[in-house]
Amino acid sequence: MCSTGNRNIMTKRIAFLASDAKVAQTARETLVARYGHAAPRDADVVVALGGDGFMLNTLQGVQHLDTPVYGMNRGTIGFLMNEYAETDLMARLSDAEEEVINPLMMTAMDQSGQQHEALAINEVSLLRAGPQAARLRISVDGRVRMSELVCDGALLATPAGSTAYNYSAHGPIVPIGADVLALTPIAAFRPRRWRGALLPKAAKVRFDVIEADKRPVIVAADSISFPDIDWVEIRSKNTIQHRILFDPGHGLEERLISEQFT
């Protein structure tokens, strides 16, 4: 990940996208009336109105356009969003700072032999789907690092996603510029005291589900999920870059630091 200035961005053509929430749709109507609207493929910048979930969906939806996305919070937490305001939008976009985020690429095989692929900006998580704990074998770059983890699940998080599900599972907050991924267990039963690991960003992580038919596991790449998983492989996808805009002094680096002192 890296952070760069955004001095050269043009802000004449804006695509306004909004979640289904009424407050987001109302905000979109107001902003379109004030600033106009362009289709995402013709826009210089996309303004996403909603919460963090909608922001993730927007980034996925415009990744082929290489268009920066500026979020304004019309949801709940809004960690990836800026404060909502209807005035001075052009000036805010011109002054915005850009963060570039590489997603995770997940490849998973289910018990029927069907392969699934998905991208995750925050994390890829494996979760038990039945009453019994999951049993996972963890390999890193082809080497088995943990022959058996008995748990409710495990996840691999990017620095941008380290304050989300990863943090709730007692994983570490990772600085935005760190070239590492956080591997965190969820309610580990055995080994009971294992707290996870920090891995190089270039690492290829594989989870094999032990007794998958008896102890079913679901895998989720952000909000995209697949059931009855046999194995999962995850690696950082450096060829894909998500461009996110933040108001000066309120970028991801500052937010990640501030989160640790609240």
UniProtKB/TrEMBL annotation:
Domain of life: Bacteria
UniProt-annotated binding residues for NAD(+): 52-53, 122-123, 152, 160, 163-168, 187
Pfam families reported for this sequence: NAD_kinase (PF01513), NAD_kinase_C (PF20143)
Keyword set, alphabetical order: ATP-binding, Cytoplasm, Kinase, NAD, NADP, Nucleotide-binding, Transferase
Cellular compartment(s): Cytoplasm
Gene3D superfamilies: Probable inorganic polyphosphate/atp-NAD kinase, domain 1, Probable inorganic polyphosphate/atp-NAD kinase, domain 2
Family annotation (InterPro entries): ATP-NAD_kinase_N, ATP-NAD_kinase_PpnK-typ_C, NAD/diacylglycerol_kinase_sf, NADK
GO terms under biological process: NAD+ metabolic process; NADP+ biosynthetic process
EC number: 2.7.1.23
GO molecular function: ATP binding; metal ion binding; NAD binding; NAD+ kinase activity
Active site: residue positions: 52
GO cellular component: cytoplasm
Keyword Zinc: no
Required co-factors: a divalent metal cation
Reaction catalysed by this enzyme: NAD(+) + ATP = ADP + NADP(+) + H(+)
PANTHER family: NAD KINASE (PTHR20275)
General function of this protein: Involved in the regulation of the intracellular balance of NAD and NADP, and is a key enzyme in the biosynthesis of NADP. Catalyzes specifically the phosphorylation on 2'-hydroxyl of the adenosine moiety of NAD to yield NADP.
NCBIfam families, alphabetized: PRK04761.1
Family note: Belongs to the NAD kinase family.
Name of the protein in its database record: NAD kinase
Organism of provenance: Ruegeria halocynthiae
